[in-house]
Amino acid sequence: MTPRLLALACAGSLCLAACARPGNAPDPSTAPPPPGDTAATAAQSTDAAAAELPVSDVRPFTATEVATFDEPWAMAFLPDGRLLVTEKKGALKLIDVATGQVGDISGVPEVDYGGQGGFGDIALHPQFASNHVVYVSYAEAGDDDTRGGAVARGTLALDDSGGGKLEDLDVIWRQVPKVEGRGHYGHRLLFGSDGKLWITSSERQKFDPAQDMQSNLGKMIRLNDDGSVPADNPFADQGGVTAQVWSLGHRNLLGIDFDAQGRLWEVEMGPKGGDELNLIERGGNYGYPIVSNGDHYDGRDIPDHDTRPEFDAPKAWWSPVISPSSLLIYSGDLFPDWKGDALIGGLSSQSLVRVEIDGDNAREAQRFDMGQRIRAVEQGPDGALWLLEDGEKGRLLKLVPVAG
Fold this sequence. Notes:
Layout: E1 4-8, E2 61-69, E3 72-77, E4 83-87, E5 91-95, E6 102-106, E7 119-124, H1 128-131, E8 133-141, E9 147-158, E10 164-174, E11 186-191, E12 197-201, E13 219-223, E14 245-248, E15 252-258, E16 264-269, E17 275-279, E18 316-319, E19 324-329, E20 342-346, E21 351-358, E22 361-369, E23 374-379, E24 385-389, E25 394-401
Domain Glucose/Sorbosone dehydrogenase: 69-398
Signal peptide: 1-20
Protein name: PQQ-dependent sugar dehydrogenase
């Protein structure tokens, strides 16, 4: 394949969801799976040319450090403006962003920490203000050295000391099957305006499950808030884990968000090249591991998306990679020129990537060198941007426009 910084997918190359039904994927590779996206292995999993990609010389924002955390992974704002932050080793923190005070939330589930696994995402129930229900994702151990992602929900009880406790935790979803290895969990969480829970379920570096409908790996999952399956899911009549699936053919999904029109966008890591920004369609098949705009880690070619138009193609893709960690569709007023744009945290690229979305088209508009791996991007109540750096002593940064 010919490397390109960014390619745009023509809307005409996309087929209807019915055109891309699951099938038996060929053996995609006998090469070992790529290394995890931890800082220690990032250099192995990234094309060296990524360091030469152009970045913006002028930042339209100032970045202020608010706190530091031990391997932070995700964050969620409470209605009162305080912020919940997960730490990968299995801790949940509550920070008052006005004072910098950090408290502990106990009652976190036991996590299987290692590689890319550990404590993951956190999301508030749409009626959190009245029911105090939160959802957490994490890696859990299974039998015979296997493990998989899980999602639990519980009640957040805050105390007067600036901390609190998770109570009555109940697991409502698990990756099936549990497999060996500690890579590609995904498990980002998001609620839609209809109250449905969306879960990204990566293929655990096992390739074929992304096309296997008896597995929920390599899929976009849509559930009711109690973990049951909505009757209008595209494969609901098939039952079992198949009923959970909204779309398939994904690799390592690490960011999801809705735009102002209610459309769901997703970013995922490609193999050696081919990171993707996708517009998610009901019942869509995005082709992995049959097609990808990247190649296998042993150098063998994977057919590009344009060779198989029956699969949904990405709206934008990167080769060399940016290693996307998270996705935010900006809707605030502090950065008015960015409203409706996608903001992507970059791990190996150590960047904040801005992508302009115009209808069904998307293109990278700017890339800001942050000097550190960016694990998460969030929008604050006032429209400010918040970033979490990856790794030990990962900083929480607040981004506001440059004055004047």
